[in-house]
Amino acid sequence: MRPEILFPLFTPVSTLQGVGPRLSTLYEKLAGGRVLDLCWHLPVGMVDRRYSPTIADAISDRVATLKITVSRHIPSPNRRSPYRVICHDHTGEMTLIFFHARGDYLMKLLPVGEERIISGKLERFGDVLQMAHPDHMVPLNEEEDVKTVEPVYPLSAGVTLKPLSKAIKASLALVPAVPEWLDNSLKEQENWLDWHSCLKKVHHPQSEDELTAFSPYRKRLAYDELLANQLAISLVREQQTAAKGRVIKGDGSLRERMLDILPFKLTGSQDQSIREIIADMESSNRMLRLVQGDVGSGKTAVALFPMLAAIESGSQAALMAPTEILARQHYKTLQPFAEKLGISIVILTGRDKGKARKAILESIADGATQMVIGTHALFQDEIDFSDLALAVIDEQHRFGVHQRLSLARKGAGVDMLVMTATPIPRTLMLTAYGDMAVSRLTEKPAGRQPVDTRTVSVERIDDVINGVARSLDQGTKVYWVCPLVEDSDKSDLAAAEERYRELSERFGDRVGLVHGRMKGAEKDAVMEKFAKGNVDLLIATTVIEVGVDVPQATIMVIEHAERFGLAQLHQLRGRIGRGSEKSTCILMYQGPLGETSKARLKIMRESDDGFVIAEEDLRLRGAGEVLGTRQSGLPEFKVADLACHGELLATARNDAKLIMDKDPTLQTPRGQALRILLYLFERDTAVKYLKSG
Ligand code: ADP
Ligand code: MG
Question: I need a labelling partner for 652 at 20 to 30 A (CA). Which of 67, 260, 419, 576 fits?
């Protein structure tokens, strides 16, 4: 249960004064729907209104706050000329300028003969000091409210600064004083203030420096966030390794026969990775290893051998994929091998229902099944393994940490192997997995042809379609990937369906459509027709992104390539170039492109190396944005910026380790405070494990 002290932060923004249904919807879109989310909506700029000269001394082109007396109003003589209000102080005169103004409204705000505080940008025309549309025009008693530094927040359509600032201010007023979770010596050494004071300071920048990641206030908040992240990972890890690992040692018989029936020779990388994994399994420590390998580097084969080792030792092995399509594909790849080796293999997905499902579950529970392929359905509590020794998670960036954990809990000391095609830099790895042993597949299987990648403006879509027509005539299979539309996958779907209708008109029933909203069986049927049957042109949303293998497909068209992350484009492109034929990837873009977008598409043309592409993307867009994409599956940070806070991450990691040594169940006063920290950063799942553990 969430600590009571945090309740005010988790209330909806609609409870704030002045935030009605319209604004709360807008704020929810912009920052999130809770008070806490507005607190984390940090300023990106500031307006300094502290400069407060007399009219005679005022320097133009600066934002200033002046105390003036209204002399007279000069209404606009015609629609193109502005309304003017002449003002003075004891040193001189100035003019306030208003375009399309309502005179009665200005008369009320600026009555002749009255003193007012005005604030805005000054300009000088010849001798005349002017201010167009002052940001503030208030009575004298509000001077102190105006003569400050105003934070500038990121906005969105329909959201303007003034009401948003007010809502954020109201949110900050609800921030409780929380007990300190930092180690005292670190806090002193860094000269950090309390968490709530830092949060308020961050929202009231006094200089441009304070807006950067290096401001001490932001650093403290970033540290809190990284500590929450590292502590959560440590807690999860503690659970994973609490059960002692077991020695899994097979006699090698299945693996030997597998090498004989494998239709290719393992690459050096594959061989090396398999050795590393087997060594982990044979040790008495619990394995937690990541296999990183580009799309097409042959991770499935790498997973297969340790699974066989587990089965040789008399135990079970499970392989889990993030989508139904992928699970089915793995099953199709592995089933013939299993049959030849005399191994019993089953597939379990959410689609299996009723009697059939019951039978599968029973065979898993009584050990009749040795190898299980599945989707997240394997995570469910009703599933009991007779003796699970190895769990392989493919393309795990789609799974959450706690899902990984629930699988590991299915067997005592289950060894875990996680496979990913996402090239993750080391610092980012730490935030996602903590310390994890890594095997990398750097070599590609022989005979792979690099994909010829071209960029084409969407204006030339007719040429592209004609090119596709020619290729189809020559018996080629073609993927057509539809754009990622922001906000809702509904509109993704609409775009794909529209393209499908259009292309069907031209190519008839050779066109197929596959998208995330389809039922599993429908999806499979279409994929099957594309792989083997009469569908030659497959319109797809990004559901095909991971893992699908159709070697005859040699052309891929990607619409609105500029909207995709590079890693994602690279993954998509990995679907082709799998056979011996030359493959082409056409990245269609909607111009005009900015410099960054141009550079990003250029990398895709020039490089075929996932790690190079990821590094370049990181460099061009910054960690925030690369990681900000929901697809990455890596943790997103509200304050921490890994490009700037790498050292803090290292400290947080050590800190978390110490905490786990000294107070692994978070019972001490500091431990209690750390629980609040975990809730504050919504790492509740980790706390849950703490309780059950
Ligand atoms: P990944 O999952 O890493 O993207 P896969 O395991 O799906 O890649 O392998 C891609 C293709 O490469 C498959 O068709 C597979 O049979 C083939 N393959 C894997 N290893 C080798 C190898 N050593 N030599 C030749 N082909 C291989
Ligand atoms: Mg794969």
Answer: 419
Residues 12 and 30 in one domain: yes
Q: Which residue has the higher pLDDT, 180 or 444?
A: 180
Residues 283 and 412 in one domain: yes
Token pair, residue 376, equals 């997240």
686 Cα: distance to centroid of ligand 2 (angstroms): 29
**Residue 313 and residue 397 share a domain:** yes
Q: For position 141, which CATH number holds?
A: 2.40.50.140
- Locate 176 and state its tokens: 């409780």
Q: Is 319 part of any domain?
A: yes
Q: Are residues 121 and 16 in the same domain?
A: no
* 503 and 568 fall within a common domain: yes
Q: Give the chain's domain count.
A: 4
Q: Print burial letters for 420-443: b (CB count within 10 Å at least 16), e (below 16).
A: bbbbbeeebbbbbbbeeebbbbeb
Does 204 map to a domain? yes
Where b means 16+ CB within 10 Å and e means fewer, 481-499 reads: bbbbbeeeeeebbebbeeb
Residues above pLDDT 90, as percent of the chain? 60
pLDDT tens digits for 286-311? Answer: 888 889 888 778 999 999 999 999 99
Domain membership of residue 379 (yes or no) is yes
Model confidence pLDDT, tens digit, residues 146-169: 999 999 999 998 999 999 999 999
Ligand 1 pocket: which of 262, 323, 329, 549 to mutate (most atoms within 8 A of CB): 549
Ligand 1 contact, 295 CB (< 6 A): yes
Q: What is the pLDDT of residue 624?
A: 46
Query: Of the residues 376, 408, 441, which one is the last residue of a structural domain?
Result: 441
Q: How many angstroms does the Cα of residue 549 sit away from the middle of ligand 2?
A: 8
627 within a domain of the structure (yes/no): no
Predicted pLDDT of residue 407: 57
CA 415 to each of CA 391, 403, 430: distance values in angstroms, whole numbers, following the listed order: 6, 15, 20
**Region of residue 298 (left: phi > 0; alpha: psi -120 to 50; beta: else):** left
Q: Which domain holds residue 391?
A: 253-441
Strand partners, 152: 45
Expressed in angstroms and rounded, the spacing between residue 327 Cα and the centre of ligand 2 is 10
CA distance 178 to 276: 46
Whether the predicted pLDDT of 629 surpasses 50: no
Q: Do residues 25 and 167 both lie within one domain? A: yes
In this structure, are 392 and 263 located in the same domain?
A: yes
Mean pLDDT across the chain: 87
Within this chain, do residues 130 and 201 fall inside the same structural domain, yes or no?
A: no
pLDDT band at 396 (very low <50, low <70, confident <90, very high): low
Residues whose CB falls within 8 Å of the CB of residue 148, separated by 6 or more in sequence, listed in order: 49, 50, 204
